[in-house]
Amino acid sequence: MQTAPAKPPKLLDQVRERLRLKHYSIRTEQQYVQWVRRFILFHDKRHPRDMGATEVEAFLTHLAVEGHVAAATQNQALSALLFLYREVLEINLPWLDQVVRAKRPARLPVVLTRQEVTAVLDRMSGVYGLLARLLYGTGMRLMEVIRLRVKDVDFARAEIVVRDGKGAKDRVTMLPQSLMAPLTEHLRGRRAVFEDDLAKGMASVYLPDALDRKYVNAAVDWGWQYIFVSGSYSIDPRSGAERRHHLDEKLLQRAMKKAVQAAGVVKPATPHTLRHSFATHLLQAGYDIRTVQELLGHADVATTMIYTHVLNKGGRGVVSPLDAV
Questions:
Q1: By the 8 A CB rule, do 123 and 262 touch?
Q2: Rounded (5°) CA angle 265-270-276
Q3: Catalytic residue flag (residue 258)
Q4: Of these four, 87, 88, 120, 147, which has the most CB atoms within 10 Å of its CB?
């Protein structure tokens, strides 16, 4: 008896498999799959092989004109479609390089003054207060601090190693002296939670790049545990394993929003604003821009230069002639 030939995986499953093979993050995977699905539905479920530049541009135009999406969102949709054609369908058509990306508006970052930072942080306590202080004290991005693991903090050297940051790069930033005691105390409580999970057989943690197969016991090693974790277990969307994941970043975003409102700060400040403030205040203190670039993990110093435009010395650091009258 002959068995029926196995059906090839569906297109969206192929997209997921390729993204995981190339070690894209779970969030990028979710966003790319969503954009590919929307692209197909927009064109009445036609297969992407049967479409080309006209259909891609029509979809992107629809997003901008009808959907009123930001330029960054439109570019993300384009990146997802480029990945689909090049990496999944293996079609490298000339028109792919000719599709024009939306021009992102050049906007200055929102930066808090030192007094505003103090006012906001004074209204944040507990784990969210510690996270906010780490953001401002180290210049890390939101998900970089959320995904910190125990082994990434070196108390002896007063350093934090930021693993797999933007662009899949590692870097080192400082551990503020004022946070050593609070972080040590937090880790003491975190260790107790880990010991309880270990006793229940639930201490396994997600490991990147198939390290769980290379180092069999690493998933239950204390050093690999997330420092800031959820209060409950959840299902890993990729493996289906039930375990304790890192803290949901939305909880910190909400706590920050409440603190900003309570402090009476009218600027639209978010956790990422603390990173902008970190960079600006270092430049105000006279630190070299290359040093700040390295701490932030910017590939190009031109990206760091944006903070020179928001220093509290007026436009481009020039004193107005009115003030000299």
A1: yes
A2: 95
A3: no
A4: 120
pTM of the model: 0.81
Quickly count: other Cβ atoms within 10 Å of residue 32's Cβ.
Answer: 26
Question: Scanning the structure block, which residue is given the tokens 């969307």?
Answer: 237
- Distance, CA of 166 to CA of 164 (rounded, Å): 7
Rounded distance between C-alpha atoms, residue 20 and residue 299, angstroms: 25
The label of the residue with tokens 């992107």 reads 60
Q: Is 275 a catalytic residue?
A: yes
CA 257 – CA 259 distance, rounded (Å)? 5
Residues (pLDDT < 70) of the chain are 1-8, 93-106, 167, 209-210, 212-214, 310-325
Three-class DSSP category at 228: coil
Cα separation, 186 vs 130, in Å, equals 9
| 188 annotated active-site | no
64 class by beta-carbon count within 10 Å (0-12 exposed, 13-18 middle, 19+ buried): middle
Catalytic residue among 86, 166, 186, 245: 166
Query: How many CB atoms within 10 Å of residue 246?
Result: 19
What one-character DSSP code corresponds to residue 88? I
- The residue ranges of DSSP E strands in 228-295, in sequence order, are 229-235, 242-246
AA letter at 153: V
Note whether 154 and 160 are within 8 A (CB): yes
Instruction: Count Cβ atoms within 10 A of the Cβ of residue 202 and give its class: 0-12 exposed, 13-18 middle, 19 or more buried.
Output: middle
Contacts by 278-282 with C-beta closer than 8 Å and gap 24+? 278/135, 278/136, 278/137, 278/138, 278/139, 279/139, 279/304, 279/307, 280/111, 280/307, 280/310, 280/311, 281/114, 282/139
Residue whose tokens read 């929102």:
110
Active-site entry in 16, 133, 141, 281: 141
Q: In whole angstroms, give the CA distance from residue 301 to residue 288.
A: 11
- Residues 40-55 pLDDT 10s: 999 999 999 998 888 8
Among 243, 275, 276, 281, the active-site one is 275
